[in-house]
Amino acid sequence: MNEPEDRIQSLMDDVYANSKYRSITPSLVSDLCREAFSKGLKGKSAVKAVRNKLHQVGGAYFRRKMDYQEAERELTNLPDDLESEQARQFCTQLMQVHASTAERLTILPTFFQTCLSPIAPVRSILDLACGLTPLALSWMPLAKGVSYQCCDIYLDMIRFLQSFFDHFHINGTANPCNLGSETPEAQAQVAFLLKSIPCLEQLDKAIPLRLMEQIRTEHILVSFPVRSLGGQKKGMPGFYRNHFLEIVTKKHWTVQEFTFPTELAFLVSK
Fold first, then answer.
1. What whole-number distance in Å separates Cα of residue 190 and Cα of residue 162?
2. Is it the case that residue 230 has pLDDT exceeding 80?
3. Global pTM?
């Protein structure tokens, strides 16, 4: 039975009452509210369930609250050369805020160069559940005039990333997306699904394969963390390797594996 829209909106308002969740795209919050009602949850229990899911999907990965207004102010004072020392320093400082990109900083000089070398120079990128990965652009093996399209659930992050593209004259677009129920229609040479499969599986185990099948790209760069957010290994590399290969086992795709101290990556060619 479909819930009345006013009940859905009321629950959404309650979820958004906490500022931690206010910038998340309404599409995802609405979906999770419907799911909570479908499970018979009401009132505070429903609010808690939706917020918990939003934390698992994205909130847990922020090491501290991101001050996008301050970041925009700093951005306007930078030279518009992304390769400049000031710009690269700005990018590495911001990438420390998000666990996914922070863990990659020690391998940043080699990660993208190694993983993308079979298809370099890269002409176009579709970055799904991007987080702050676009800030690593100057460490990627790119063709001149590369096109970079990215999406995430955080509206304030997306606004900042568009300002980042504009400031550095990058042919880039940043849009909100709810990968739980949407597949971007954009075409690109390679898609990024960097450390996002475990998050997407919090919504639905079927999402990662559906996305990989439907996205309009020749290649997909997939990666997984090798440690928990608390810093423990817990056999994660072996678990995620087996899990990913199981996801793609019935597909006639070529898979190349790359192992780094802080990340396990696969380049999938469709």
1. 20
2. no
3. 0.94
